[in-house]
Structures are given as structure tokens and as C-alpha cells.
Design a protein that fits this description.
Strand order of the largest sheet: 7-8-6-9-10-11-12-13-14
Number of domains: 3
CATH class of the largest domain: Alpha Beta
Function: Cell wall formation. Catalyzes the addition of glutamate to the nucleotide precursor UDP-N-acetylmuramoyl-L-alanine (UMA).
EC number: 6.3.2.9
Catalytic activity: UDP-N-acetyl-alpha-D-muramoyl-L-alanine + D-glutamate + ATP = UDP-N-acetyl-alpha-D-muramoyl-L-alanyl-D-glutamate + ADP + phosphate + H(+)
Largest sheet: 9 strands, mixed
CATH superfamily of the largest domain: Mur-like, catalytic domain
Enzyme class: ligase
Low-confidence stretches: none
GO cellular component, one term: cytoplasm
Amino acid sequence: MSNIAHTYYPQSGRLVILGAGESGVGAAILGKDKGFDVFVSDMGNIADSYKNTLVAEQISFEETTHSEELILNAALIVKSPGIPEKAPLIKRLRALGIPVISEIEFAAQYTDAKLYCITGSNGKSTTTMLTYYMLQKAGVDVGLAGNIGRSFALQVAREPHEVYALEISSFMLDDMYHFRADVAVILNITPDHLDRYDYKLENYVASKFRMVQNQTENDYFIYCADDEETMKALDKHPTKALHLPMSQLTEETIGAWLTEDKNIVINVPHREQFTMNIEELSLQGKHNVYNNMASGLVAKAQDLRNQTMKESMSSYVNIEHRLEHVACIGGVNYINDSKATNVNSVWYALESFSPDIVLIMGGVDKGNDYEMLRDLVKSKVKAIICIGKDNTRIHESFEEDTDVIVNSASMQDAVSIASHLAKKGDTVLLSPACASFDWFKNYEERGNKFKEAVMAI
């Protein structure tokens, strides 16, 4: 059995994996276990831990190059989500008609587990983790994978589960064709990664809606009825799955909604109705109400008991680098939101705190439109401290909306400036709106450097 109805891809022969990160090495191990002749190729340096795994598994690999003579003879390619479609090698593979798929698509062929798949421009890590936490507390045999946790392919190969909570990015969805989600969640859609989608929002929206492309009438589709782009796209991307909308603005009859007295109500057909006051949620803020609704709807689709859901929603602790409270020093709260790599995430962060905020932002701009932040910056932000190599666009966007915009030379420098500008009762918030790879390896390193600098004050 598998989550791909028929076998569309070669089941033997040469399997080439492009990219030797978590997903690539996991796919290589699954491929080896299924009898493929596996080769792994990475344009960069392979991390020692992954290299050691490949050596121990006797899987051949190369690093710092893609040798075309070793790649173009593949029967099947599994590519890292980070490699864009316009890369010359991918174009060549497409021209030769060699199937190029994602690790999720590859692994789904080899499991009959239930797949609960969560995507969205914002909130997908929190929602996936909360869903996983809730299912675990209920005693479900559940794995956590996708954009988070250990490789899905590796778990299918060596640590199989009955259910998987999968965080799915648009880059993964782009290389998924026959995969089917038992429960598909689209939390929200706001402009992000538009550089990968020819700067066209409709291309990015179409990518997100690949989540529902193979669903049947026995599946569930959870989405936000308050999200403009999602609602506009529903007719263009039909699905047979049962629709479960969630809303904080209107009371629905099915799905999840917020009552006037601030109760979340979750109603899924043939399941016991669930009610919980938002004051009892461990994750506070408007965006987290949606995250709890989505996780609650998945839990109800799995027929979890109300008591287990309540206990989970009131005890869950948020993930690192996402609105993470680092310290309170001299009455100033320091918040690490390094995972906020797009404008909408920063909007959520600013919406979660009261004035006055000293905002640390900047990095590699992915074609950001800062307009949506202007009102919040005007009303809540007393200073912006820029990190990263080029912050021209941040200066241009906000120079009239806040009194202070300054550049910094390092994260330590940024935190030092912030600590001098912030007074008792203020919040220093790292919420960059940008990718990290001009100064840092990834958003985790950026967040850790922020935390180190705060603890050194």
C-alpha cells in the first residue's frame, strides 16, 4: 500500500539524489533499502554527520560539484527543495524526460500511513508541532517530518509510523504530483518566495493548492475562510475532500470558529463537538488562534478525545526561534523570532506585542513588500535596527514611520544598540522579514547569535 495510488515512477535502476541534507540522505537510505543503485550529488560541502551516514550505508556520493555524466543517466531524480526549477541541470533533466520529484513524493510510495499535511505562508511549523504533540499525547503512533524533524523518507525506511504530521513548503509541493494527503491544511497565503515564482502571486498560490490535488471524498481539507487569497483560489483548485473552514470573523456550521464570548468551537461531522476558551490556550495571539483551530480540526479528523485536545492546547510550548522569550533584562523583554523570514511573519510578531518595540530586522530581501507593516511600525515601533549587508529597502520603506533607523555591524552590535534604546517595559524583537544567508548559515544560527548577544548584555 502507499499514498500514491499507482506506481508512477521507476522502482529500480539508478536513483540520483540532488542535495545531501536531511531530506536527501533520508531518500538515499530509503532508495538503497528498496534496491535502487543510489548516487548522491551535492553542489556544496556535505556536513560531516551526513557524510558519515552515507559512508556507513555504503552509498556513493560527490560534493562541491554535479558531475553530469553521473546524473543524466538516472532513472529517477529526487531533488532538494532548495534547488530552483530554473537551474540548468534541472532544465536538462526535464528535457531528457527523467522524472524529478521531491523526497515526500518519493517516500509516500512506500507507506500506507495516514498523512496529515500542513502548509501556509506562516504558522506551519507551530501548527505541525502542535498537531504532532496532540497526537502523541493521545497515544497515536505518529512521526514528525517534512520541513521539520527527521527525514520522512528515513522514517518510512527505518522507523515507520501509522500517522505522520508533515510540514510541507511550497518548494516541496512543486515536485509533488501523485501524492495524496489524508488531511490537507492551508493556513494562509501571503506573498513569499516570489523570486521562485516569476514574481507572480498566482503561481505561488497554485503551488500551495497542490496540497489538495489528489484528495478523495474520504479526505479532509482545512483552510482559513478569513484569508483573502485562499478564498479567491478555492474555485480554481477544486477538491473532492470534505471542506472544513476556520474563521474568527463568522460563525460556521462545520469546521472551526470563534464565538462572541471568545470560545473556539470545532465541529467535524460524526465527531463530538469541541469548545475551549482562547484564554486557556498556551499560545496567545490572533495568529495562534488559527493555529490551534487547524490543529484541533486535524485532531478531530483523527477522532481525538476532547480532554486530550484541551490538555494539549493548554500545555504546548512554542518552538525555538518563533516568538521565543529569551530574557527580561532591566524590565526589557528580548524576543527571538528569527524564523520570521517573510513580511507577514513580522506582521504577526508586531501584532503580538504592545508598544514600545525596538525591532531588529534585515538580511537577504526576497522581493519583500513592506507596505503591510507600515501601520504597525507607526503605532508600535520606536526604533528599527538593521542587520545584514544591504538594508536600503528597509530604510526607504520606514524612514517616515519611525524615529530611529540605524544599521549595525553584527548581531552583537545590533543587540547592544537595542539595549541602549530600550527602556523598562519595552520589547526588543528580532523579527527579520528576510532570509539569513548573507551573515549567517541559516535562521537557527541567526537566532542563536541573538540569544548569545542578549545573555552577554
